[in-house]
Amino acid sequence: MDMNDSYQENAVRAISRRNFLKLMGIAGVTAAMGGAFAGCSSNGADSKGAEGGSNADEPTTQTVTDMAGNQVEVPVNPTKYADGWFAHNEITIMLTGAEGLVATHCAPKDYQWMYKVCPNMSQATATFGKDFNFEDLAALEPQVIFDSTDDLRDKAAEVGIPLVNCMFKTFDEMKKSIELTAQVFGGDAPEIAKKYNAELEQVLADAKAKTDKLADSERVSVMHGNSVYTLTIDGTDTIIDDWIKAAGGKNAVTESTKGNASAKFTLEQVVAWNPDVIITGKADEVDKILNDPNWASINAVKNKKVFVNPKGVFGWDRYGVEELLQIQWAAATLHPELFSDLDINAKVKDFYKTYLNYELTDSDVELILAAKNPA
């Protein structure tokens, strides 16, 4: 549950908010019962908003335009919500501390840093996925569902749960998606979103101020994938392509993988693309790539420029808020001579403290940079 005292817990167990409204049939009952259903974010956001009060004249819903262009009516300051997109869970943690999260797509065994950094994740039920049953999700009574597709929209509408599509594929879309999510959450979330987006813009500007001056011949050819050794590789028209360019590289993969995070290629194509740098999302693949004779002719292997992409609460490389760190890490990895003053360890600690409300140790940082689970 997302409530903090026993009275609130008993109130929710006794009768659901939605059924209570049906029984009473009074539009203003939400305001009248605001104290029984209110919650606070870990960042100090009062669920009733900046004014800290509520009355019958205040609206209980608002209409937002989601990333798919849908007009969605959502409750003001929702206290129970579900997150069906892996990457978006980290945005939820940043904006609310996940205090109202009742359902998630991120299982504890697969996202160990996420659950360590944000203990509130353990209050959510790990649902969605292959064996997903929508009735199980509906039984948790989320007031809003965040997702990356519209697949559940009709089912959710049947039981009165609004769905907000938050999908993004570029940095500009990412900022809009974060603003959208913050608008739905209310409280302190919009200010947190504003701060994050401003820093993201600054990090991109700082990187490009150096890398935009590079000639094409100075740009490093980069191959990136969630699992490069199994040939699951990212192409153009992705946010991966965006940070490769911002970091002073050029994508070795010439084909678009827009909307396909599991695109497969052949080893013959990889050899033909001949990247200068290989970055894989799997820590154990670095040695496999370096020691496999079938990969030996590739420049990245010859020059031992094969790296694992850091991974903490979420993979830095794709769609989580640690993209802010990814840009800096990638720039320093591709062009250490241009970014010799970057202290990535300090940046990681500062990021986690500022946006995830968590103090990392030196050993924590080492594990995250190596894409390893918590000790």
Structure description:
By secondary structure, the protein is an alpha/beta fold. It has helices at residues 6-14, 17-24, 29-32, 34-37, 88-96, 112-117, 134-139, 153-158, 171-185, 189-211, 239-246, 267-273, 285-291, 299-302, 323-334, 344-355, 362-369, and strands spanning 61-65, 71-75, 81-83, 101-104, 125-126, 144-147, 163-165, 220-225, 249-251, 277-280, 306-308. Helix 8 (153-158) links the parallel strand 6 (144-147) and strand 7. Residues 1-53 have low confidence and may be disordered.
C-alpha termini separation:
28 Å
In one word, what is the shape?
Answer: globular
Low-confidence stretches: 1-53
- Any idea what the radius of gyration is? 22 Å
Record field, number of beta strands? 11
Instruction: Briefly note the structural class of the backbone.
Output: alpha/beta
Q: What is the H-and-E element order?
A: HHHHEEEHEHEHEHEHHEHEHEHHEHHH
Question: How large a portion of the residues is in β-strands, by DSSP E?
Answer: 5-15%
Helix fraction by DSSP (H/I, runs of at least 4): 25-40%
Describe the strand arrangement of the main beta sheet, using strand numbers.
Answer: 5-4-3-6-7
Mean pLDDT: 87
Number of helices: 17
Give a quick account of the main beta sheet: strands, pairing sense, barrel closure: 5 strands, parallel
